[in-house]
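ok new one. same drill as before - structure tokens go in, u give me an amino acid for every spot. 260 of them this time. try not to just spam alanines like last time pls lmao
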């Protein structure tokens, strides 16, 4: 019984020591890491926050992103100014090195040479990191959709040119030739302007693959305006060439370009 009592006392002491150790140890919290550049001291916590509380994910992200706001340590404006200064220092030091080397033998050229080496070093540190150490932003669904539109557009346009044969022409024909006939077979049985359909969606697909939203909007507006006007003009000529035959054909087919 005495032995059991002694073991119980020892266990109590052990638990007490463990509790004291846990209570005196401070873990590195995301808030501390962000505020101290990733090397927050183990015994510090952010001001105004309880000792055992941790920031939410949103708070941590906001703190991280705020470093890049104007007038902050990592702001883009600050980076631009520092880059300008590095460029000025590099230019002056390189010119000074060349000038001193052109004079009588002297060791003074080593000073600007060393400064220019530092300028190149700091530039390459930033440039290489920005160019090769950043995760690529790839939106897989948009990328795949772009590939599909390119494949669809190119296939439809090629099929249209093959089906039309000698009736296909890149230049609008204002007079009907003897060899002209209304093509309604193959892909023309569904789309009455399949070559325009193919080019329109092919163009948009290329910009989706490139991930260029500005050019995507520009392509959409430019291509739509071009084909909308061209289709209206061509269909007026086709009605003139083929009469009711084309009117009936137009009623059972679609263009495939929105609102055109």
């Amino acid at each position: 019984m005495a032995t059991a009592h002694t073991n119980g006392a020892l266990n109590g002491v052990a638990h007490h020591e463990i509790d004291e150790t846990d209570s005196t140890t401070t873990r590195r919290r995301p808030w501390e890491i962000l505020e101290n550049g990733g090397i927050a001291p183990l015994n510090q916590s952010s001001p105004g926050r309880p000792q055992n509380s941790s920031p939410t994910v949103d708070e941590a992200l906001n703190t991280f992103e705020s470093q890049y706001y104007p007038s902050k340590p990592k702001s883009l404006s600050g980076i631009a100014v520092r880059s300008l200064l590095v460029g000025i220092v590099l230019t002056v030091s390189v010119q000074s090195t060349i000038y001193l080397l052109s004079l009588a033998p002297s060791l003074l050229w080593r000073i600007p040479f060393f400064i220019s080496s530092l300028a190149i070093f700091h530039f390459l540190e930033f440039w290489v990191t920005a160019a090769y150490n950043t995760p690529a932003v790839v939106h897989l669904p948009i990328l795949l959709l772009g590939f599909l539109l390119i494949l669809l557009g190119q296939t439809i346009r090629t099929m249209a040119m093959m089906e039309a044969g000698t009736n296909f022409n890149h230049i609008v024909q204002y007079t009907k030739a003897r060899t002209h006939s209304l093509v309604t077979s193959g892909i023309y049985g569904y789309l009455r302007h399949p070559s325009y359909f193919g080019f329109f969606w092919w163009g948009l697909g290329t910009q989706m693959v490139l991930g260029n939203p500005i050019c995507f909007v520009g392509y959409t507006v430019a291509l739509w305006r071009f084909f909308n006007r061209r289709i209206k003009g061509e269909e007026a000529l086709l009605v003139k060439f083929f009469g009711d035959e084309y009117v009936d054909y137009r009623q059972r087919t679609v263009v495939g370009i929105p609102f055109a």
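The two ends are 96 Å apart (CA to CA). and btw The longest helix spans residues 213-242.
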